[in-house]
Amino acid sequence: MTNRITTLFNIEYPIIQAGMIWCSGWRLAAAVSNAGGLGIIGAGSMYPDVLRAHIQKCKAATTKPFAVNVPLLYPNVEEIMNILVEEKVQIVFTSAGNPASWTSFLKEHQMIVVHVIANTKFALKAQECGVDAIVAEGFEAGGHNGREETTTLCLIPIIKAAVKIPVIAAGGIGSGKAMLAAFALGADAVQVGSAFAVAEESSAHPNFKTKIINAVEGGTKLSLKKLVPVRLLKNEFADAIAQAEAEGADRNQLAELLGRARAKLGMFEGNMEQGELEIGQVSAMLNEIKPAATILSEMWEEFLTEKKRLLALDF
Q1: What pLDDT, in 10s, does the model give residues 126-163?
Q2: Angle between helices 120-129 and 152-162 (to 10 degrees)
Q3: 169 by DSSP, 3-state: which?
Q4: Contact at 8 Å (CB) between 33 and 66?
Q5: Who's near 212: CB < 8 A, 6+ residues apart?
Q6: Does the reported pTM lie above 0.90?
Q7: Up-side HSE of residue 169: CA atoms within 13 Å toward CB?
Q8: SS3 label, residue 269
Q9: Which domains are seen in the chain, by residue range?
Q10: What is the DSSP letter of 132?
């Protein structure tokens, strides 16, 4: 398949692996890229020297394009950006911050820049800043989420009508059928997080992967809206957050309850009750740990099969 996104990134399939903290290391990024998609290293959970090592290992593991995701609120963001330049990273996904702060710098160094948004206001701002494409992430997504709680089904056509640059749909996409739906809404590609979080090559703790594939409908909830909205699997920590919010906890109280390294404790170290477990609603549909290449190929084959089925319908 050839379209604006496959041409922009020089990839075979319009399937992008999300840059998830504690899940998206070099092994997962290289596996997705080698399978024909675009793998992404998630810098959000990496110290600068760790990120450099992951970039170098990814280069050694694949000759295909890959990207790095950088949350712009990262405390060492200037050092991170300099590493991207020094390591000659070609594609950067930015998120959680103002695209005006770093897009020009990245473009000056001949990088392709994509920014993650959850509403029209920031989609237009990202386009104005000169990004090459945007990820429009709906309410169903795991991890950090939009405050507007706009679902992917509603968000994609709104964003598509507002911008001229390519749109990558994210949030609730973990199958070929969902991918086809996103394309019907106007997406040029899809970004997939949760389904790749349980890939064999994901750096997530085995306990976390098991909890994801055992998740049920309604097993996640958008929490911490006064702080940074994040979708979490339900556990003792999530229950404590819910109780605090019900009792009117303010931003500072929630920050104290969250503490430091809570996500690492859960997703990377495997504490399934006290850790922060970020995952999307699509987790209820996932039931097996597989190689990333298998996940990608099954999604693509289902996409083609469903496309053929719809074309054969006699309306």
Answers
A1: 999 999 999 999 999 988 777 888 999 999 999 999 99
A2: 40
A3: strand
A4: yes
A5: 194, 197, 198, 233, 279, 283, 286
A6: yes
A7: 30
A8: coil
A9: 4-204+287-296 (3.20.20.70), 206-282 (no CATH)
A10: S
List the structure tokens of 224. Answer: 């911490």
Per-residue CA distances from 241 to 13, 120, 174, 252 (Å) = 39, 29, 27, 13
Residue reference for tokens 């300099």: 82
Give the closest residue to 233 by CA, choosing from 253, 218, 244: 218
Report the pLDDT value the prediction gives residue 149, as an integer from 0 to 100.
Answer: 87
The token pair at 263 is: 């996500």
Burial 14-46 (b: 16+ CB within 10 A, else e): bbbbbbbbbbbbbbbbbbbbbbbbbbbbbbbbb
Q: Dihedral through CA 295, CA 70, CA 20, CA 150, nearest 10?
A: -90
